[in-house]
Amino acid sequence: MTLETDGGRVYFAQREFDEIAVYSIASDGSEDDVTTESIYDYDNAGLLVFDIALDLNNDLIYFTDKKGNIFKADKNGVTSVYTGGIFSEDIDFFEVPNCISISENSEKLYYTDIGRREVFEIDLSGGERQVIFKRDYDTPLDENPIYYRIGRSQSCDEGFAVCSSGDGTTGYVVYENGKIEQHDSYEPNSSIKHKYILLSLCALILLATIIIFGGSKLVKTFRSDKGEKVAVYTLTFVAILTIFLVTAVIILNNTGKRYNERVQINIYYLASIVSQYIDGDVLERIDSPDDYLNEDYNIVRDQLHKAFAELPTEMESMSKDTDNTTYCTLYRMKNNVVYYTMHLSDDDGVIYPDEYTYNDSDYKLVYDTNTAHSFTDVTTADGRWLFTVAPIYNSENEMVALCEVGLNLVSYEEADRRVIREVFICVGSLTVAISLLLSEFMNLAALLNLFEKLRKENKDAALPVEFVRPFAFLIYMADNFTSVIIPLMSEQMYTPDIPIPQMIAIALPLAAQAAAAAVSGFMCGRIIEKIGNRRTFFAGIIFHIVGLTGCALSPTLYAFICAMLVVGIGMGLNIVCMNTFIVQNEGDDNSGGFSLFTMGVFGGTNCGIIIGTILSERTSYSLVFMISAIVALLVFITVKHFYRSDVSIETHEAEEKSSIGMKEFLLNFKMLGYLLFALAPYFIFASFVFYFVPIYADSQGLTESGIGLITLVYGLMTAYMSGVTTKYIVNKIGAGASVVAASLITAGSLALFILDPSITSLIFVVLIMGFADSFGYPALSVYFSENKLVALYGEGKAMGIYNAFEGAAETAAPMIFGAALAVGEKTGMIIMGGGFALCAVLFAITLLIKKNK
User: Fold this and answer.
1) 382 contacts 146 by C-beta, under 8 angstroms
2) Which of 441, 481, 719, 721 has the fewest CB atoms within 10 Å, i.e. the most exposed one?
3) CB 548 within 8 A of CB 629
């Protein structure tokens, strides 16, 4: 089908059941739905029409049908342009016009004739026809190439066409003056080269940085007091990963080998069975393109479909397992040429010639031996194939046709590789989850020893700030069991009687959670003033448990939204309480505490997503929510057991006496600049990973497990590089400068995706963002907590405002990204990246003004 562009729109035609429809859509991607431009009635168009060309200048279409005819259609009806399908009396071939194209000035019609193996040009004003590419009449017909495709090139002047031979490698340009140029290869565009050079350079820099920086850090760690513990972590992870991978490889290899052998045997018997269903006498009467869909054709077609409908159970299962990679074709041999006579899928017409010469084809062996033969790995321009060819006989026991049943090995092996990838992704993800759990439990064990020592020295000793990491890990793990299935569960609960568009309704539970978290976080400071941080923390976990239980028991979407509101209230309280716990324990120098918090958050998020995804594939969504609620209950028991008293309550009460008002706090130039130009933009842009990446990756055919792996790598980098990058970056250049650096690195990384929108560049952007966010998130918290206004206003109330802005940004982020992408993917990314960079620059200006003062 030809695509045409005109006036900022892309036009294309599509075969419908009894009509041909012409559609258009904005070329800049600003429209989600196509516009119907015109409809042309044509009986049985879905089966008969082969190729369509658009003439936008005259509001016409030209098309070929499988009987070898060329037609013109306008609003008044369909008229014939050229009648093919004729068997020449002096030369043994049928005329079968196939692919067509119209010159840009609408004066010439070009078409390929796969029966004559030539290319023609028709003058549309006078009707004269001439041959552009003649076949070699001194050689047999089957030894001449077939020209399958033809179309205008977009890089030259009007009045020419480009066509390629059946091997897919030879191209020709035909100019208005009759000049013909051959192009056997095409050099990649220089801009494409530059993109891949840039991507490769970034990959090398990133790899070198990881090796040098990570290697030196690992060596130092092994030589330190913590070397023994790190060695145990590393060896445990390597051992688990090795066992899983070796086991997976052995199982997959054995299973794949046995399955391949079974497929080969089934294909052989399948061809033999199907060939016996076909009536050779009827098939023998189908001998010209005009017989397509006639009475004899439909009889054989019904027999072919009946054969596949009545397959033995094992072979039926095999054909379904291979999806649409299995095919069946019937062939006839006429005048020493092998012809397609029928496809199971009705792809081609009748007596369409094969592109290979008969003497070199696999079919000659079957004709000569009169027996079925299997071919295990045949490579053509269209791919690699495994197939069996079986003879079809008439009532006089004469071989009149061949039945070929085969498998597209490229598609089959890709499906096989997809299964292997998913298994390895699942194994790798599970390994990471187990390692994370082991790591966190070993870290918790070490903290318990430390706490016991402190309690022996002072029975009233406060809980060390290091406990914020296991608290954050457990809470976020429980919360993220369900993060992947929330929109899926919303979609299941949506019913047509809900007076809200489906896409908006599906997003409401997540929006409700984020909004509730923002409000509860804002109110949390005053609650902490009244009842203390410890009790508020307990209340937050209880709200979380109740909300998750409500989600599991929700019968309707409305109930689910209400339950997610309760979950959001709990998480809003939990986040502020953990941040307040850090500030109360560490005072002014709290970069270490926020780094530990970041590690716990992303570690728990990754672990929760992995375990939750595995659970959701094997049980109901409601049960996953209930499991999440049970884990949250265990978290409550753990936190209540260890967190027994608040820290320095008297000191903080004294500080509250000199507190400033909310208006003075919010309207302070420095604080307002931080909230508007640093905090909010940072959390808005975080949706690139959790909103845009899944949408784009899904549109490119990446599976859910592949998308999960990308976010997993991002989370691991953010969590476990945080301790190192925070120490060496935030502590060296300051929290404010670190926020600016992280923002500019993240915004600048989008240039990779803008230059080359692909999965590869997307992965590089996510990796760079993981590095930047590993110190960017702690720097945001450190800068805020170290601000003198926070101490004057009150840490609890200030953290509530912090959480309110964070929640508002997360609530608005999908809508902001959606609005930006509405103007086009590339343009939208430029807007988002440019806006984020601009905010970083404005925040940097507020820092400079502060220094000058």
Assistant:
1) no
2) 441
3) yes
